[in-house]
Amino acid sequence: MIRKIETFKALIGAGVSALFAVLLLGMNFGLGYASTSSNTISASANILGVCYVSLSSTAIEFGGSTGTTPGITTAANSITDTDQNGNIAANVLLYANDWTGPSPAVTYAFPGTYTGWNALSSGTFGAVPNSIGNAVNTGITIAAPTVTNPSTSNNIYFDLSVPNALTPGVYSQTITIENSC
Amino acid sequence: MKQLSKISISFILVSLFLFSFSYAQLGEVAGQPHFNVSLGSSQTISVTLVNEGSTPINFRTYLPNLNQIANTTTPTVTAYPMNGTIKPHSDFNVNVTTYVPYNKNKPGLTWQGILQFVEVSNLSSSSGTGATVVAGVAKIVTITAAQPKSNILTLIIPIIIIILIIIIAIYLITKSKRNHNKSKVQTTSTSRATKRKNTVSVKNKSSTNKRKSKAKTTSKKKSTKTSKNRSKTKATKSKKSKAKRS
After folding, report:
1. CA A92 to each of CA A95, B132, B177: distance values in angstroms, whole numbers, following the listed order
2. Looking at the complex, does the CB of residue A144 fall below 8 Å from at least one CB of chain B?
3. Is B87 within a domain?
């Protein structure tokens, strides 16, 4: 019985080795088992649209360093909104909070709507909304940057109509400029 | 003088280097989120913010003030996280969830608002009458109420209840039938048993009666025998006495 098993094992071993030999021969001599190699890889990339916001300045000094007087509308100050390395056009939205002052003892605040905005340096300036949730869509667009022109920008102009009889002192406000795409 | 000029030139070069290589630029992946939310349910959309610059950006989320529609319940909008820091050259996901309540709302109603992500800086306005200018990115969020979803549970639960009722009814019917059959079987068996008992008792009674009668007869016989014997003895005795007398 043991002998029979041993012979059976030997037969199987011989058969397997013969099969390998045939395969090797076939591969070597190209008898139907020739290996096929490929040197191409299919690649894909989904490029998402992105827009960036970068502002030319972080502060506007209405009336310059000398200041301004009550009842006067200051000259327009421009902020450049740049989209660098983005790839899609963006709309410019903005809002501002109320003016507070005079610093440091705040006694009076006047609405942020006294700040005006415009796409041009001259003409009629619209009131900047002073509610965070109600940012206004200015209609100003930042064109989509391209490979040849990776940085696109546009200007927004601001002025301030200082209320009459406003207590002298330093007043401050925060204007938020947002790009949306 | 030469040293001063050298220092100033090196300072300018360093500042230029810093200006060109250290900057933060906030951005967002394009696409205005449109929530199509079924009445009574919520939907979450992820907004991706990007920092293209080499310095971290701290941001704060401002939820939209949705437009009010008369005789409706305005949906609620939540965002997570409400603030955070975007690492340099990386992006950051903010999950925005809207919930449209059933109350007073109908499918087709649409609300809009501006979701804002604003840079947080420690900058303060300069001297004089000034404004601090802050950069941000915004998404115009649109929420449309849709037909309420046919919840699978609302369908499954009544079906399960009906199936359970049917099963219970079948069980009760089969149980009552079994009980009825059992009672029938019991009554028949009891009747049979009583019949058997009765017959057995009758038999027993008859046997006892028979025994009794037998005993009676035997006793009678015995008594007759004894009486006969007595009479016999009496007769013999009288005969003997007569003989004696004679």
Report:
1. 11, 17, 81
2. no
3. yes
ipTM of the complex as predicted: 0.75
Q: Which of residues 75-104 of A touch B (CB under 8 A)?
A: 79, 84-86, 88, 93, 96
User: Do B133 and A58 lie within an 8 Å CB cutoff?
Assistant: yes
For B95-152, how does the pLDDT look when each residue is reduced to its tens digit (9 = 90+)?
Answer: 999 999 998 999 999 999 999 999 997 555 445 568 999 999 999 999 999 999 776 6
Supply the range of the domain harboring residue B116.
25-122+132-146
- Please report whether residue B46 resides in a domain: yes
**Total number of domains in chain B:** 1
pLDDT-derived band at B209, boundaries 50, 70, 90: low
Q: Where are the alpha helices (DSSP H) in A59-121?
A: none
Is A126 an 8 Å CB contact of chain B?
Answer: no
Query: For the CA atoms of chain B, what is the radius of gyration?
Result: 57
Contact between A65 and B114 using a beta-carbon 8 Å cutoff? no
Q: What is the pLDDT of residues B148-160, one digit of tens each?
A: 977 666 677 778 8
Spans of all domains in chain A: 1-37, 54-180
B64-87 burial code (b ≥16 CB/10 A, e <16) = bbbeeeeebebbebebeeeebebe
CATH of the domain at B33: 2.60.40.10
Task: State pLDDT tens for residues B7-26.
Answer: 444 444 444 444 444 567 99
Q: Looking at the domain assignment, is residue B85 inside a domain?
A: yes
Q: Which CATH architecture has domain A54-180?
A: Sandwich (2.60)
